[in-house]
Amino acid sequence: MRLSMLIQNGPMTMPDFSLLDVRVARKTREARDVCAFELRPVDGALLPAFSAGSHIDVHLPGGLTRQYSLCNAPAERHRYLIGVLREPASRGGSQAMHELVREGDTLRIGAPRNHFALAADAQDSLLLAGGIGITPILSMAEHLAAAGGAFSLHYCVRSADRAAFADRLRDGGFGARAHVHCDDGDAAQRLDLARLLEAPRPGRHVYVCGPRGFIDAVQARAAERGWPPERVHREFFGAPEVAPGVVEASFEVRLARSGRTVVVPKDVSVVKALAAAGIAVPFSCEQGVCGTCLTRVVEGVPEHRDSYLTPEEQACNDQFTPCCSRSKTPVLVLDL
Fold first, then answer.
1. CA-CA distance, 47 to 27, in Å (whole number)?
2. Of 109, 126, 182, 329, which residue is most buried, by most CB within 10 angstroms?
């Protein structure tokens, strides 16, 4: 899956840019348009530990970097397992993984990072996945099952042939706690979100990952029923689409440390405009979901187009993601 990835519950941490070389030990078709990749260290050493909900940066042929959630059990140190959906409108990442990456290939990856962690104080967990959003949710289920934690998992797909890792859900020791809901199946087996989120239970946390519409529906229902926002955790796999009718405009970015000014044309991102001026800002996903490029804003008002910051963090207007966000004011002063 595309991490995605990355979310907005819990404290933010600086990305770990250490790189690891791994071998593609296995590449398997898990469902329609979904391939799983088992990654093992080339030197045979143990891989860095990770927690449920973590993702890794994968450096792909052609210079692209994409984020994918780890979907194996966190106790495993001999391998990482990721699932990748081939996106119809791929910007190159999922296409490269499906068409160019083969068993035996060596890839360079970043160390695991987690912005979608299980809450330490949760007494019960409701895990909700839509489509390829099953990947971090599956890792959470593996961890909770091994730790004896209380949870239930609900996985929504358009059709049975799109249910990735269905064998693990059926045979992985989850028992009656794992449920698959198919949109084209009998009405009785479809997800009953109203029932699941009828009222907040003490100590229960909700975790949701998948398409934006699915996440929005879960969050809206939870808010309607009075669930505390801090107990509803989500992870997006893509930035929101720009609303119809929005007219792009150019603006200026001023660098507070050097005093330089860079013009950002209407059809160019801030990071690319800065790069063209010889100013490098680390970035990765180019969709505002991973937080790699997060930059402090000194003056001006950003136009937030990311899914990384919470609405409360966006409202502060003291940081933004220059890979996709823009400016509401003619000049945006950055701490660069």
1. 19
2. 126
